[in-house]
Amino acid sequence: MADENDKRARQARGSRDDRLKSALRENLKRRKLQARERAAMDEPSQNEDGSLNEGAADKSGS
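and the corresponding structure tokens:
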């Protein structure tokens, strides 16, 4: 009987560990995606010719 209780306890612990591993993995994926999106938003945009887009101030031709 004690063996059955130990077996159930190990299965429950293993099940919990699996759920925690899965949750941590999903959280890491989500955080990496968020970091990539933030980094992409912070990068300056470039024109087709490869020059940086500095806004309308330089378009006046002066």
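(Above: one complete record from the training split.) The first helix runs from residue 2 to 42.
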